Amino acid sequence: MTMAIDLKGGAAPATLNERLLKRHDRRERTALSLLTAPGALLILVVLILPIGWLFWLSFFDASGEPTLANYARMLRPVYVKTFISTFQVAGLVTAACVLLGYPVAYLLSQLSERTAGILMIFVILPFWTSVLVRTYAWLVILQRTGLINTWLTGAGIIEEPMPLVHNLLGTVIGMVHVMLPFLILPLYASMRAIDPVLMRAAANCGATPAQAFRQVFLPLSLPGLAAGIGLVFVLCLGFFVTPALLGGGRVAMWAMQIADNIAVYGNWGAASALGVVLLAVTALILVVLRRIFKVDTFGGAR
Amino acid sequence: MKRRSHIKTGMLAATAMAVAISTAHGADTLTIAGLGGKLQDDLTATLFAPAAEKAGVELRGQSHDGLAGVRVQVQSGSPGWDVAHLGAEDCAIGAGEGLFEPIDYQVVDADGIAESARGENWVGTNTYSVVLAWRTDKYGDNPPKDWKDFWDVEAFPGRRALSVYPQEMMEIALLGDGVAREDVYPLDTERSLAALEKIKPHIGVWWSSGAQSAQLIKDGEVDMEAIWGSRVAGVIADGAPVAFTYQDGVIGFGCVAVLKGSKNVEAAQKLIANIVSPEIQARIPTMMSYYGPANRKAFEVKEFPADVIAQSNASPENAGRQIVMQPNWWAEHNQDVREDYKNLMIE
Amino acid sequence: MRSKVAIQKISKAYGAFIALDDVSLDINPGEFLTLLGPSGSGKTTLLNVLAGFVRPDSGSVTVDGTEFLTLPPHRRNLGMVFQNYALFPHMSVRSNVGYPLRLRGVPKAELDRRAGEALDLVQMGHLADRGVHELSGGQRQRVALARAIVFEPSMLLMDEPLSALDKKLREHMQLELKRLHQRLGTTTVYVTHDQREALTLSDRIALINGGKVVQLGTPDEIYDRPRNKFVADFIGETRFLPVEPGASGPLLYGRALKTRDGAAGRNEKSWLVVRPERLRWRGGDDDGSNRIDAEATDVIYQGDSYLITVRLPDGAEIDLRRSPDMAGGRLPDRGEGIRLWLAPEHTILVTDHA
């Protein structure tokens, strides 16, 4: 009762223990946020700091003098061409993955979980073999003396072997093979999450199967598709081995340029500048992608 | 010198070798790092191990993936390797970056080593050649004789391959364009690139590894190409219808250098002195066919059988038909030329 | 709007499991018919046959004389309310309701007007621009209903539409559904496993079990004239006491039973249907016929009434209610033996099989 005496008038009941409870509340929140500390620390150490360092380095030349030369150098034709071809390859691969992967994911999502699980093994199988092995396997299939050309020339369907590899086409084929699971998996997950009753509801409303797909299923699968596209596109930007082996030297990727700068020229500043530009453009593309697909308005966002 | 396969097996073999050596002696321990693979195994057996024995040092083998690895070692302040074996242009570049201790030419007798095959901070240990190879089933009795024929797509139709790395290719392009062997250096990069631009439509593949270059000619994916002599020798040994010529070949060097900050500089100098000594260099023609000694006095040490002389890229007869690559030129022009070359290559 | 539906000899088997076994059923124009049955009885399968989501093995469904089974679902012009509403999560409330109209090429202005009217009908007009995620269960139910009626379908199908709602809301929605049906007069087929819901809503109930229609009738027919023990058991809170056939009539524990029609259970073993609201505290004939000796096991005050748990002679317990005004006389004590009566008009005998 002593507390009631200290307090003034009608406000007393409202402020009883107010500060104490607020403090408890704050303490609880602090404790909770501490739980994220190890993760935050890890991100700081392995992500934020190195990227910051990269950014810092990019403004110095090989002898340690501040310079913008690392960025100016990127205007040389080889960098411009490489930059364009990197995004061109990533775009082509992503588009091919969408065209090939969407029907597969759709098929899988319509099967029983059991059957889908079995078929999914074939989707994931490429994950279990090394990129190098997969890439060489494509060489065996696609080269002029490879399976396809030998068979087609042998059957008299074509006279001259087709240039299927050691060019952009071969690179895209090999990369699509590597990337397809990255598109299918998130897409499949989001398709599974679509209640099949919605398709019945659409049919019931009078939608033909095609209309139901376009107006109900497709929009609901977009968040998964966007996730897959983002994943594939960004991973493609960093590709290295496949373009080097299947591109026949004609397909240059930004990542190869970065590696050259470090391994061959020993120029960390220049390599960092390349990394910074790639990072910035990638971030920009992801933001644009988000806008296009309006990812926020779907799914469990609300 | 850009072989990266079999690094692990190379390391294992090199380590085993080092263990065998270390049990025999009890002196300074030196660590030598090479590009790994069969090349390093061969170099260890032919040069490094006997040189270490003569120098009275113990030897440990490691492998690296090129100049980048060496850089990291030196930048760490206390390198784990004492000596690195590299391609000569990398030695020259590394020397320019200050990665190496100077070679003590009081200790290392470089009398028989060409000027272009050594520098203040590095010295050549062996030679290799980039040669013209072709499919015999394609060209039969009338094969291409030199790079001028390689550039003559009328007389010698067919798909060609060059390396994605400009070293040696720029030289080849000038030879193909009609430049005399003695006029190749200093490279006229504009003329070379223009020549490459001419042949570009006929290049089926720009290869990026020795294994790939061997596979291309072996499978008949291309009809003629520039390839390392040792690689094409393997293809011919496998029975593929392939032949090659040393005519207009480009002789390049392998080299050694002492890493800056090494604790065993003196012992390293002794080791290097033995590696390049005519006696040990004379082991190369017989033990590493299609490679050659960096020290021309090696051929004066003893009589070699005729077939060995015919095979060795550095035998006086073969060497006379080739040009010698100049690592120092490459060290100066590497990045610009490489980027221009790449710009030409990519679509 | 008020279609006549004839379901003839529909059968559907999933492997060895027979979901529908030769079902025939006529649905009258404007009728509210409920398919009532336990889970797995086949009621939802039958609804899905009507909607076109399940293709039966044999049989025929005609709506106003045209064969329906060969029509794909989207051409059947049926409104359907699904168990979990099945609203399109990427569309607003208005777009959901307008969707059937959009598919029918209704111009934008008319579409908005009609969707608004349908939403007003279910008192959701003020939430038309909300996202589906922002709605409560009851609100989603109303939107689903609006979507099903907005295009004036020939028939309305409802698949346990209220089962996800809490009891109070469910009872409220039942009344709204009934009112809506009275207003629109659309032929409605309603699936539920809740017998009280069926009794509340329906013009007629088809009680389904094991893929067959066990009994078809109005709610009071189903309640008061169950065809067999299964029906009596499924409808109402029912207990059964064994009845033996006797020379002059059925006997309950040796005492005579006077029944409504006087016929049932005369020649075979049958069951007396005991429902709490039919039991009387006093009355009966002096000869002791229709008397049930029981024991009060619990007496609980519940404000509006007393709940008296009574143990029947066979050991089954049944809950009776008595108003607190004591019109029925003194309350029994716990453990006290009591005598209950069933009036002959409420004395129903059923057999195991119809």
Structural features:
heterotrimer, A: 302 residues, MetI-like fold, B: 347 residues, alpha/beta, D-Maltodextrin-Binding Protein, domain 2, 11-stranded mixed beta sheet, 11 strands, 20% strand
Give an overview in words.
With 302 residues, chain A is mostly helical. Chain A has a single domain (77-301), classed as MetI-like fold (Orthogonal Bundle), CATH 1.10.3720.10. Helices cover 75% and strands 0% of the residues of chain A. Chain A is built from 15 helices and no strands. Chain A has helices spanning 2-6, 12-15, 18-35, 37-57, 69-72, 77-110, 113-124, 131-142, 147-154, 168-192, 196-205, 209-237, 241-246, 254-264, 268-293. The radius of gyration of chain A is 27 Å and the shape is flat. Chain A starts with a helix and ends in a 9-residue tail after the last helix. Mean pLDDT of chain A is 87; it is low at 1-7 and 296-302. Chain B has 347 residues and is of the alpha/beta class. In chain B, strand 1 (29-34), helix 2 (37-55) and strand 2 form a beta-alpha-beta unit. In chain B, helix 4 crosses helix 17 (327-345) and helix 9 (210-219) packs across helix 10 (229-237). Chain C is an alpha+beta fold and 354 residues long. Chain C has 8 helices and 20 strands. In chain C, a hairpin with a 2-residue loop joins strand 4 and strand 5 (66-67). The interface between A and B is medium-sized, with 28 and 29 residues.
Q: Oligomeric form of this entry?
A: heterotrimer
CA gyration radius of chain B, whole angstroms: 20 Å
Percent of residues in beta strands of chain A? under 5%
Overall mean confidence score, pLDDT of chain A: 87
What is the gyration radius of chain A calculated from CA atoms?
Answer: 27 Å
Low-confidence stretches of chain A: 1-7, 296-302
